[in-house]
Amino acid sequence: MDFALNEDQEMFRSYLRKYLDKVGQTKVAREFIKGNTNEFTVVMNGLAELGATAINIPEENEGLGLGAVDLVPVFEEMGRVVLPGIYLETMAFAVPLLEKYGTEEQKAKYLPDIAAGNKQLSLAWLEPVKDYSLDQIECAVKEEGETLVINGVKELVPDADFADAFIVVVRNSNDGLSLILVDRDDELSIRPQKCMDESRHLGEITFDEWAVPKSQLLGSWNQGVNLLEEGILYLNAGLSSLLVGGMEKVVGMATEYANIREQFGQPIGRFQAIKHTIVDMKMDLEMARSLSYYASWTLEEMDAEKQKAAVYSARAFATEAFIRLASENIQIHGGIGFTEEIDCHLFLKRARFYEHYLGSVRDYNELLASALGWNKNETSKNMKAEKVVHGQ
Amino acid sequence: MDFSISKQEEAFRQELRTWLEENLPEGWLQGNRELPEDKADYAVFLRKWQNTLYEGGWGAISWPKEYGGREATLMEEIIFYQEMVRVQAPPLINYIGIHMVGPTLIQSGTDEQKEKFINKIITGEEVWCQGYSEPNAGSDLAAIQTSAEKKGDQWLINGQKVWTSFGHLADKCFLLARTSTHPEKKHRGITAFLLDMNQSGVETKPITQMDGQQEFNEVYLTDAVAYDADIVGELDKGWRVMIALMLHERTGIGAELFTLEKRFDDMVAAIKDYQINGRPVMDDPSVRQKLASFYARFRGSLLNYYRNLTSTLKNGHPGPESSIDKLAVSELTKEMAGFMMSLQGHRGMLWKEDAPIDPVWQDEYLFSFGQTIGGGTSEVQRNTIGERVLGLPKDMGR
Ligand SMILES: Cc1cc2nc3c(=O)[nH]c(=O)nc-3n(C[C@H](O)[C@H](O)[C@H](O)COP(=O)(O)OP(=O)(O)OC[C@H]3O[C@@H](n4cnc5c(N)ncnc54)[C@H](O)[C@@H]3O)c2cc1C
Questions:
Q1: Which class in CATH covers the domain with range A7-119?
Q2: A69 and B1 in contact by Cβ < 8 A?
Q3: Which of A369, B90, B260, B391 has its CA 20 to 30 A from that of A222?
Q4: Contacting residues of A for B268, CB less than 8 Å apart
Q5: Could you report the predicted ipTM of this complex, rounded to two decimals?
């Protein structure tokens, strides 16, 4: 039994933390919110220099050839400082899919650049007034000679304004789903969407007879459902770690404040209403951390059903818990907690950002239930969550 | 990360399995797990089981070989628990003797104490209980008033203990008594005695619990006798001995976590079969949602226990994080059992042989209220975690 990150992983964590402390922790996010994205770019370059963008990329594509568990410390540290950007989508969605299903040409085109920190990919899935159910995908692709022509609208695309490429979920002529790699282009119509978590940018992309070469098809035709299923497993394992990082910071903030803030002649942490609340936060944090470590571990060690149970339980638990913790943290800080001045609100907004990203807690609970074989023969057929994975 | 178990550990598991198949009471593996109703027969049955374990070499696996143990590793102890839970083995009547008193005496008892007590613990000849709590000293254990006074070569012990688990079955008691009434701090001036329960100065009265069982007791001490030779550690320094004794519980709440895991599986199996008004309850999305969130929490608790265990393996001893496990498992058990009560609707009120699914849920529900109190209440666990794990300021009065 050895259920812990290993020494290398912990050491890497300490480098990352030192670096992110040095650049001012949440200062990067705060500048980003003000519209100054330079610092963010500088920090992403710094992280790339440390190796963070190369971790799970194969050595033949100029990466470090490590695995999902090695990403855990990076996600946690980024979560701690509510770092902007699409590192998650890039490393935990695009990279595993490219590695497994990409052509040699696609790998050569994207992976070394990602490893060097020069490219980031986002995910264009959701369509206006729809949810993540796969039968609701209308964005269409047709083949015209050597090109693929896309028509449709995608919204809530993370960081649509600065992603270098998008993995776009499309429906093809024989009604199957496929994934297409679409490179960023200034001609592409992107409308920014206002997000409550202002440290994140969202965009609506309109594809109007948008042509890309045929070689941009990721995987084969109609393979989209399977690819998405695999991709969201990786992404959710990573997301759980990102949430854990945020939770850890929030528990730390609450603890520190409860030790220094005095009322009625004593630190407020001596009041059990406060102390016990923080302990319950800590309980949630440690549960979420164990679930998320395990989720990432199963990605390389276990079969698909075990992976799903591990990943979906981590995702569902951590999403809810982070909202709970971030809310309590504001309450514990009292008046100052309600202000923009200190960081409490950043974490709450980030927690809400992820609440429904790629599905809700409800959806993930249903996916978990079917992974555990609880709803074989009954009503859930009309549930959206089922369709996220099993498609049309 | 590595969740695998070694070849050696696997062999250990197989050896234990084979032994259990051959040595569990007749019919046990086939599902006939009735324990004798009659209290005297019950005690005889469990003592016999302890002795069977001993004779098979499984009586106290973590003890040194010279005392009849196997010097089992922490992982072997875990495997032992897992297997005992898997076959739902009879309860360990001498839990306190084997996990706490025995190891304490082996480590810091006198030669005479070792000679006198240790073998009888492992064989089940003498059953032990813990005499800490008193009517006015529960969470605030240092407030105990039971006194021990030296008269000639005897210590005369007077006072009352309460909630003493196994007290009615026990031959010996690991007892805390006040030996100094004017200590500079109230937890000084307490001494740990190895008290003989089979004497006229000790009177045990069973207390009926809310689940109808009688597992704990009031214990009245009227000039109960002990000798210098029965003191563990030093005079007035019993507090320290008690803390050390608790640390001997290396694997802590493990068995309860594995029980919770089993309960969770049983719960799902029961729900899969259960229908209300001709409709499978599993069809109800709110039931699935609840089950899914229980799944996440129990898996989280179990994995968290493994993470704490990993650091115990590295540090050689458990840390204050074990309070996290205790708090998680007891609260979750209570909630899960409560959910199973609600699920059964108005028929959930029926119990014992009339219970609609399986009386185990009604029993578990009632028993769970003891789990969030015994061994330190949930509030006290939260204080421990807050102060010792997170470093928050100390509760007033402590
Ligand atoms: C099933 C079971 C088995 C037991 N077995 C044994 C045994 O074998 N030997 C033995 O000696 N004892 C045993 N006990 C006793 C047990 O240790 C005590 O019941 C427990 O420590 C609580 O003490 P109390 O009952 O006096 O409650 P109190 O301490 O009076 O507590 C009452 C309430 O006040 C709360 N409270 C108290 N202090 C604080 C504080 N500082 N902060 C916040 N809240 C507080 C408690 O959490 C609780 O909610 C057993 C109890 C149970 C239920």
A1: mainly alpha
A2: yes
A3: A369
A4: 372, 374
A5: 0.90
